[in-house]
Amino acid sequence: MLHFSQMFAQPWFFWALGSAGFAALTAVFAKMGVSGIDSSLATLLRTLIVVPLAALVAWLSGGFATSGAIPARSWLFLALSGLGTGASWLCYFRALQLGDAARVAPVDKLSVVLVAIFSVLFLGEALNWKNWAGVALILAGVLLIAMKD
Predict the structure, then answer these.
(1) Tens digit of pLDDT per residue, the chain (149 long)?
(2) Rounded to an integer, what distance in angstroms lies between the CA atom of residue 104 and that of residue 98?
(3) CB-hemisphere CA count at 13 Å for 18?
(4) Are the CB atoms for 99 and 105 separated by under 8 Å?
(5) For the packed helices 11-33 and 72-98, what is the interaxial angle rounded to 10 degrees?
(6) CA atoms 101, 102, 106, 107: torsion sign
């Protein structure tokens, strides 16, 4: 079992923190960028930046050289993931256009709650009572942040 202090020694934790930090900046920059243009166009423009960046990182990290043949199952689930990402981004940019970033971004993070549920149902992962308590607190926090005074 991983204890709280050990979590900081895990390589995945720092990558996840980076993800959270960049996601926070993304919300602020996207809110500023979506002002005055169609949210679908904003999503397209963002995607046009992400694709070459991801290709560059894959190339620099040697991903193309070591990939070999990609299994059909990987293609299927990565394609589904890509469709999910696209749909998520379209919804997110429209929500940012209509609402406050400080409320939209936390509601978007309800994905954390859904990932916990889906990972148990579809991936067979196990969460203990502390994990479920954290999920419940995230849900409660999102609802509190999303409420208008």
Answers:
(1) 567 677 777 888 888 888 888 888 888 899 999 988 999 999 999 999 999 999 999 899 988 876 678 889 999 999 999 999 999 999 999 999 999 999 999 999 899 999 999 999 999 999 999 999 999 999 999 999 888 76
(2) 9
(3) 5
(4) no
(5) 40
(6) negative
Which token pair is 86? 């696209």
From residue 73, alpha-carbon distances to 7, 55, 79, 80, 86 in Å are 32, 21, 10, 11, 20
CA–CA separation, 142 and 109 (whole Å)? 8
Q: For residues 43 and 45, what is the distance between their CA atoms, to the nearest angstrom?
A: 5
**What residue ranges do the domains of the chain occupy?**
12-108
- Residue carrying the six token digits 């942040």: 145
